[in-house]
Amino acid sequence: MTHSTSRADQNNDTDAPIGGQQWRTAAQTTLTRLLTDQLDRVNVSTGHRVLDLTGAADIAHVSRLVGPSGHLTAVNASSGTDLPADPRGFDIVLAHRQPDQLDAIAPMTALLRSGGWLILAGTIVAPPVVYSAVPGGTTVIDLVIRAIHALTPSPAASPSTDATIGLLVALGMDQVCATTHTETIRGGGPGCALYRHAARHLRDQLPGANGFTNAELDQFDRLMQDPGVLLRVDSNVTLHARMTT
C-alpha cells in the first residue's frame, strides 16, 4: 500500500480543547476505533483508494484491507475546503461529523467513485447520566460535567443524525447506516480521569461561571476517583453511505 499525507503539524497542541493533550488523545483513540469498525463493515478490498480527512485512520489496518496495490491519502481538512482535486478518485472517504459538516458533505461525495463509501464519525455531547454514586454525588457530577462541556465545546460534536441521513439520500447515496455507541465510565478509570483533569484545568473558571464552591469541586475530584461511581456521558455516532452505482 502506498501512503501520502498533507496533514499539518499534528503535534501542535495549540488548538486542542481545554483539558490538554490527554483529552485530545482519548478522543483520537475513540475515533480510530470507530473508523476501524466502519471500515470492517463496508466492502473494502485490494486496490482500493482511501482518503482520510480525520487524521485518525489506523494505517496498518487500512494497509491490510487494501493490500500493496491500494493507497491511503491523508489530508488535514475538516470541512469541504482543501479537498483533493480528484473527482470520483476514491473508493472510501473518512471524515468527521461536525456542526458545520452538512454543507461539506456534497464535495466529499463528489470524490467517491461509483459504489464508493463515505464514512462519517463524531460525538453527540449529552448531559451525563449517573447510575451509581454516593449520596449527593449525582448532583455534583451532573453540574460539573455540564459546566465542563459548556466551557469546552467539542469540535467533533455531531449534527442531527436524521439531518445527515436526509442529505446523504438527497445526494444520491444509498445503503445509509447509522450506528450509535455509548459506553459507561467508572470512577478511577480513564474516562473519569479525563473529566477530573479537565475540572482541575478549569478550576479558576468554573466557580465564577457556575457558582461552584471549592468544596464541591474537591468532591467532584474525589468522585472521579471513586470506583463506586458509574456514569454515561457522550455517545459516538458513525454513518456509512454508498454512492449509487
Morphology: elongated
Largest sheet: 8 strands, mixed
Q: Class by helix and strand content? A: alpha/beta
Number of helices: 8
Instruction: State Rg.
Output: 20 Å
Q: Which spans have pLDDT < 50 for at least 5 consecutive residues?
A: 6-19
Tell me the total number of β-strands: 8
Oligomer: single chain
Order of helices and strands: EHEHEEHEEHHEHHHE
Overall mean pLDDT stands at 82
- Percent helix: 25-40%
Beginning-to-end CA distance, first to last residue: 26 Å
**Beta-strand percentage?**
25-35%
Can you walk me through this structure?
This protein has helices at 20-41, 59-66, 105-109, 137-151, 161-170, 190-201, 206-210, 214-223, and strands spanning 2-5, 49-52, 71-74, 90-96, 112-124, 129-132, 173-186, 230-243. With 245 residues, it is of the alpha/beta class. Strands 1, 2, 3, 4, 5, 6, 7 and 8 form an eight-stranded mixed β-sheet that branches. Strand 2 (49-52), helix 2 and strand 3 (71-74) form a beta-alpha-beta unit. It is elongated. It comes from Micromonospora tarensis. Residues 1-14 have a biased composition (Polar residues).
